[in-house]
Amino acid sequence: MKKTSTAAVVFGVLHLVGGVLGLLQSLGGIASLAWPNLQTMFGGPAARIQAHLNENVPGFQVVQIVEVGVGLVIDLLLLFGGIALLRQRSSGRALSLIYAPISIVNRIFATCYHLFFVLPDTRQFVEQEMAKVPGAVIGAEIGLYFGVCVAVLLIIYPVVVLVFMLRSSFAAQLNCGGPGEDEAPIDHEGPAGDYPGRSP
Q: Per the domain annotation, does 44 fall within a domain?
């Protein structure tokens, strides 16, 4: 009987939590792209900032569409990979090895893009439009930099997943490399080379 891998269960649960939260975020992104007037109909600073970024940040709308698409793929990989890991399947490890590098590259690109393109324009807009409100600029800047810090922290999980999934010991726990320790090889030959059922 194959032993249950505790690490697979832990990663499976984390995958599912991250996949569900990410899927909700992706669905929200799809809704905002499908109905762009959804944000502007309520007005307010958020709508004005969105309009400012669309007009001034290079490729902002295209990057948003790509991020939503890639994010949806990542969410599905997490969900299916998490289910497979909870079921102690080697396919969970394979899906995790696909998820991790995609997520790392996506996070690095998104962080750099927002840090060097989105953040400066947003900060400039906030300083111009919200300078009349005491404390509004400081609060907005804290929110912007907090978002960048969160994006950087989110890179840690796929890195940990990649390192752990590449370990041969973890692969052995899921029987990715062949029969497990508890599985004895089947002997098709009896003593002295006799097959079962052969007359002496």
A: yes
